[in-house]
Amino acid sequence: MEKLSDEILVRIFSFLSARDLCRCSQVCSSWCRLSDDFHLWKKLFIESFDKFISDSSYYKNLFPTQWKELFITRSNWLSGHCHVQSLHKKAMNQEKTEPTKVVCLKISNCGGSVLASVNQDSKLVHMWSLIHKKSLHVVQCESVIGCVDFGNERSQNLLAIGLYRNKFILWDFHKRRIILSRTNITEVARDQIESPRDTGFPPAMAVCRVNLVDNKLATVTSQCVVKVWHLDLNQLGPISCTCLHTLATFKPRCSVLDIQLKNGGNDVWSVSISHAAEVLENWNLIGFQTVRFQGHSLIEEDPGVTFEEESVDDEDDCVTAKMQTWTGIQKEQMGSRTFVSCLSISPCTKLVTSGQNDNTITLWDTATQCSRHILFGHTGAVTCTDVDMHKVVSGSNDRTVKVWSLENGDCQLTLPGDHTSGVSCVTFNDQWVISGDSSGEIKVWDFAVNSLSVLQS
């Protein structure tokens, strides 16, 4: 074996499994170097995980040194091998104790190493380092926070924050300051901005969801009024924004909402919204609607949708903006006879997941608006879900977090280390799963652990 060239040894190693390659790396320094050859791990990755890659450009953005790390991470996802750690907040001197229940978690889209968390009825956004597992900064807002979302590289990875007081702000976590604060809907009565006491619901004009992609920001209120904003991120001075569209669905107060912006290329965008509202006792309708637009022009893609166009003077920007009202008739086939607690739109917008209090998760096909799979496995009400192109992560009152396959609806794994109370919020990317519970605990499951983990069955 000592007389064989490196090329011949690499050729021999190409017939080995990942587990055998890791064993060979422990023989000597020469074999350790050869067993890390990226051609070997690229071949193993494509053979094992190519069926999960839907974007053809995925492989173009990879460095040769990443193939082994990616294979290990994906293998750990399937085997459930990960490192679990909790995040602990620094003690803060506050006149009023901050509420504990975690209601919002978002991972940075650039590098994915920063986490933003929000507690119920809180005016604070906590920023965390997922690499060092420690607090980085706390953002103080002027009113209760309804939602947060990170931008991508083109939007300079800013943090968009929606507030109950009919406002949204942009926070730059590199400069650690607010760079934009804007009223969402002008000329709103005070009783719509401030929620009556002890109702348990956000105000009618509360910004409940935000989605920041490139230079576009979508906001939606608790009464399903959607606004799409154009952000001027290239100017040297303060960031300005212009309202492109207002899409009013005229729905009653909804229990849960989700919204997603998508860049279809050639400056053609789409905004998708899914909502669940109780229409009868123990009967919830789940709606899904998508509108495409290019600048100030809306593109009608559904024959059943009509547009009413009107011109409104936007006094905040001192320009005349064209605002659109969307009054299309909605298909109402998507329904659940139990309470819907959460909704998530898949990145391809072809699927919507809903969690119910009967311990199930339903996968809805947005084209047919019919159920594709019903997922069974939780022993408590499903309180939160998150979805990507090939899997769903869910949290439940049974204090567990589970990972499901979008392809066949099977439960792939239940993450180790249960919460001490019901899970209230969950998010994930290729490396981490982060979940928060009703007692304020935030847990991080890190799947990018030591490469020798593939030796474990």
TrEMBL record:
Signal peptide: none annotated. SUPFAM superfamilies: F-box domain, WD40 repeat-like. Keywords: Repeat, WD repeat. InterPro entries: F-box-like_dom_sf, F-box_dom, WD-F-box_domain-protein, WD40/YVTN_repeat-like_dom_sf, WD40_PAC1, WD40_repeat_dom_sf, WD40_rpt. It comes from the Eukaryota. It holds the Pfam family F-box-like. The keyword Transferase does not apply. Residues 1-44 form the F-box domain. PROSITE patterns: FBOX, WD_REPEATS_2, WD_REPEATS_REGION. WD repeats lie at residues 333-365, 375-414, 416-446. This is F-box domain-containing protein. It comes from Pocillopora meandrina.
